[in-house]
Batch of 3 targets.
Target 1
Amino acid sequence: MTSLPTPRGRLSENRALNDLTWLRVGGPADYLFQPADVQDLRDFLRDLPPEIPVFPMGVGSNLIVRDGGLRAVVIRLGRGFNTISTDGGIVTAGAAALDAHVARKAADAGIDLTFLRTIPGSVGGAVRMNAGCYGSYTADVLRKATIVTRAGDLVELAPEDLNFRYRQTDLPEGAVLISATFEGPSGDPAELHARMEAQLKKRDETQPTRDRSAGSTFRNPAGFSSTGRADDVHDLKAWKVIDDAGMRGARQGGAQMSEKHSNFLINTGDATAEDLESLGEQVRKKVYETSGITLEWEIMRVGDPMKD
């Protein structure tokens, strides 16, 4: 059996992940590693046998872990990786800092990162997925990101190194993002906080924020043309094509497409990961049958299905 390095942080074997995801589903990881600090993380990755996969995990806000779990070392950053500092128009945040906390701290300093306020999750996930809303994206404000590579090296990446795209970036395989530096427009702190309060109110009115969900389930099918003609290309919303397919409120076991916002997949209380993913695939199939549109998952799905 392959032996693992002995870190100063916490290394747990066969650790269930369901309590670490917003959807509260998922089987165990072979190991869960919570590093004590950056050097602990560097040493661990350097000494970890190269054949053992690594899966960095944030707060699990945009993730389905399948019921069979993950054959990997899951790395989850905690205290020591969540600091937030400001200097002029610059904000530097650890990867474990929550997006909402970064937005508030920035607003206190008169820096406009308000779009982060309603994005669930942490800075690491925001950079990794180029998170955004209200027409603003992480790519618009990122100035640099710091990672620890699979070999244990500390490396700074510029925005062009990440190749930002819609909900995607190119991080090196097995790398763990540990911090990011942002530069936002200046603004009046009171006005920035008022804007965020308005955003929160709008979100709560239109989204099932009190239910167990992972945010938007599918990407909006932008640029779809039903005829193939360039002048017929138009932007659609995923919730609209789901509604048109009659799948608002659809259920599978303990999983449901929200009645409040049909692009939100929710755990009503006893869903399995299989329930959730199966319902999502039913929605994709129905949407394709009724509109010819293939919805793409926005929620990341990882791990193995439960064995029979």
Target 2
Amino acid sequence: MDTLELIRTFREVAARGGFSRAAKTLDVSKANVSKYVAALEAKLGTRLLNRSTRTISLTDAGSLLLARSTPLLEMIELTRDELKHHARQPSGRLRVTAPVGLGSSDLPHFMADFMQRYPEVHISLDLSNRVIDMVDEGVDIALRIGRITDANLIVRKLRSIDMVVCASPVFWQQHGLPNHPDDLGDYDALTYSLIGSNPEWRFLVDGEVHTVSVRSRMDATDSSPLVHLALQHMGVVWLPRLLVQKHLDSGTLQAVLPEYGPNDLWLYAAYTQRRHNSAALKALLAFLEERWRID
């Protein structure tokens, strides 16, 4: 038996004024109660109770332990109740990381809706394109586009990612429209830094994965500056549709080669544990699945 349980047994003996009454309250044998108190005294190296054939009384050490253990056990009980509440009712802080580009997508709107539904949950959202160690940095959920190779993470598909090749209408008027993914090698491309100094874009041609080497005019660690330059007629981007949808809708960017888009990219939610997850984490995963499946 751990020390806290031994202390609880001792406190029950002190409160009830005897081993028999404490044993009845705790629903254990009198012999066990006596053994537990003796074990606690052995752990602490001091006698806690004065015993006679008829009565018990607290020693000075016993009185000190009784007084000092009261706030400790109250704090433990309060913490236990709060943890049970976390397990049942979405509440507390959730730390979420996502690519910077998702900050310009529906994600902030979804977070607002989620917090209105669950007012006891606080979201800490870290927008970053770097690969992090979720355990070391205390992150509950990581949203990622593409493949997640860490075998220690549990991943859940949220939505399929439609990749689009697009540029401004002015750019296409100046340089002509491509007819095939291979034609993209002749255009100035605006690329992610993370795909390296020799960037390749992936397509699906005749049911097979087909990569095209592109000539990068500028690379960046995030999509925002790439989109900005594309709007200034500086080149072609290959990005998730959800990051450029508003520009496609407004006509400031024009997509090409839609029939060659890859179909194996997903937006994932990754987390580290399968069991004993908080109610807030479970609720956010379900909420994002629901919203992105609809949208």
Target 3
Amino acid sequence: MKEAIATGETVEQAIQNACTQLGIESCGENFEILEMPTKKTLGIFGGNPAKVRVFVKESPAQAAADYLRDILEKMGNENVTVDIQEEEDGAMLCVSGGDMGYMIGHRGETLDALQYLSGLIANQLKDSYYRITVDIGNYREKRRETLTVLGTKMANKALKTGRNYALEPMNPYERRIIHAAVQQVEGVKSWSEGEHINRHILIGPEGGERVSSKKHYHGKGKAPYGKSSCEKKQKYDSTASGRD
């Protein structure tokens, strides 16, 4: 709930002054008269202006958008616009104008921080979780396409070589994109390992890493390197197992 208290010579003027403070054109019936105006006695003594309280119910998306715009302006981006695209159980806040590279940051780190903070503001007004996504200069879509290509490429590589491959640490949003891309390649799986900022994805064949051996031992007795091929396979299978 946003509200403003203002005064004016008349009730109508006081309401308009309060609406101006809130940045809205009109408030409909969302106002309360705190004091009626009184005229001066003999045109000289006493007299008081009208005093009103105007209030508007603010949606979670609008609250997040207002907060985001305020933060970006304090970062030196004065000419920015924030458009709200309502989604199921959430909203996308699309930012245009300003220094986009500065607002996005290295690999989207600043953008992710702005999204996290905007989400906190939105969820102060909701009993259930309200998802806020912030996009600047269509960065999210471009990044999604890049990660989809990367996930597909590494999945095919893991399928061809029979080896596991670790990707760099990513946030949950980007990891979901990689997981979705890997699922489209049959015979390959992906899972996450690590904690917090070091959490990353591994991609490998569904049956675990394959034992790579250029030399084959056909003699009797023990294998020449002290471990049988069966023991080596068990070691590889145990290290390749994991879950997201």
